[in-house]
Amino acid sequence: QARAGIISTVEVLKVMEAFVNEPNYTVWSDLSCNLGILSTLLSHTDFYEEIQVFVKDVFSPIGERLGWDPKPGEGHLDALLRGLVLGKLGKAGHKATLEEARRRFKDHVEGKHILSADLRSPVYVTVLKHGDSTTLDTMLKLHKQADMQEEKNRIERVLGTISQPELIQKVLTFALSEEVRPQDTVSVIGGVAGGSKQGRKAAWKFVRDNWEELYNRYQGGFLISRLIKV
Question: The ERAP1-like C-terminal domain covers which part of the protein (predicted)?
């Protein structure tokens, strides 16, 4: 209703606040998706920082309850919920989540304590969103060293979270390099487009500048339509 302009977005935010004690992954996934759309819209306004504060307020109680490590008797959905919540808090700049993500990322890179598969995406997203050229270089090194395609794809999907314009360009150039399989290039560009306001503009310009190569590469198949959609 809010998207259709029938009710105020403020009413939606009030409803979202009522879910702070919600334990269900599916509900949080839906809340996260809707807040993501709202964040994207508000990234063009003065309210962007305020919506990040709202995200932290709504997600921090469930984040504190879940913690970073699995508890005995947890199910698959709890692991999914932990990844979703920590990623959301980290991206929004929640201080404690950012600090812990950086600590665990350092241990992971140094081989002291390898991150479990379900924590890798939220940690990668958090350190990249608030990272610099060294962080990006480390991620690209992890990509190069990865034995499994699943890990390469996981890294490719989150590279676009990086914020600085020159690093966004580096990620886009990487998308068309031989390091990335042609069928995965779209994921990298899509990640940039969804990562930030600057990323959207840069990805759109990049697609236009490289349209001939991209079009010839995908020959009008489903990947070109997916690229346009993202």
Answer: 2-229
Among candidate residues 120, 131, 80, 122, the one with its CA nearest the CA of residue 97: 122
pTM of the model: 0.93
HEC string of the chain? CCCCCCCCHHHHHHHHHCCCCCCCHHHHHHHHHHHHHHHHHHCCCCCHHHHHHHHHHHHHHHHHHHCCCCCCCCCHHHHHHHHHHHHHHHHCCCHHHHHHHHHHHHHHHCCCCCCCHHHHHHHHHHHHHCCCHHHHHHHHHHHHHCCCHHHHHHHHHHHHHCCCHHHHHHHHHHHCCCCCCHHHHHHHHHHHHHHCHHHHHHHHHHHHHCHHHHHHHHCCCHHHHHHHHC
Instruction: At 187, list the tokens.
Output: 């994921």
- The structure tokens 């190069």 sit at 144
Pairwise CA distance, residues 24 & 150, whole Å: 27
What mean pLDDT is predicted for residues 122-148? 97
- What per-residue confidence (pLDDT) applies to 41? 87
Our measurement of the distance from residue 59's CA atom to the centroid of its chain's CA atoms, rounded to an integer in Å, reads 16
Q: Provide the pLDDT for residue 33.
A: 95
